[in-house]
Amino acid sequence: MSTVTQVFDAPAAHVWKVIADGWLYSGWVVGASRIRAVDDHWPQVGSKLHHSVGSWPFLIDDSSRVTAVEPGRTLELLAKGWPLGEAKVLITVEDLGGSQCRVSIAEDAVKGPGKLVPKALRDPLIGVRNRETLKRLELMAQGGAGRQN
Asked: Model pTM?
């Protein structure tokens, strides 16, 4: 799996609130263009968020499903974007105390054409995308996304 990690200048609880609000997903996940629906019990195991990937007018409607969760700490997803394929994604949030936390995203293709790309090429591409994803997530957590005022 390709793994990227970043120390955030935001408390872990603030980061988790962004992650736990499925409607915010397209704001921080690179490639997600819009959210069409979010299951009421998101992010519990088995819940889905229904998203579109790509750029208009070339959008693909699909979904991501939670396969494991430890609230406040980890979220594991099966992210779909057919006909491109499916990926396993593991997001980990580690509280460092005060106003800092460490966030990691581990991802790899598990099914479809993406799996055919050699790992030596696939991992760096996923890494670049997820470094930007982490930057966006940090900015949203710092800015108060997902929190009630």
From this structure: 0.94
Give the C-alpha distances (Å, rounded to integers) separating 147 from 24, 27, 37, 132: 11, 15, 20, 22
**Domain segments of the chain: what residues?**
2-143
Contact partners, residue 134, CB within 8 Å, separation at least 6: 4, 6, 8, 103, 105
pLDDT at residue 14 greater than cutoff 80: yes
The top-level CATH class assigned to 2-143 is alpha beta
| HEC letters along the chain | CEEEEEEECCCHHHHHHHHHCHHHHHHHCCCEEEEEEECCCCCCCCCEEEEEEEECCEEEEEEEEEEEEECCCEEEEEEECCCCCEEEEEEEEEECCCCCEEEEEEEEEEECHHHHCCHHHHHHHHHHHHHHHHHHHHHHHHHCCCCCC
Mean pLDDT of all residues in the chain?
A: 94
Q: How far apart are CA 84 and CA 49, in angstroms?
A: 18
Reported as a single tens digit per residue, the pLDDT across 91-115 is 999 999 989 999 999 999 999 998 9
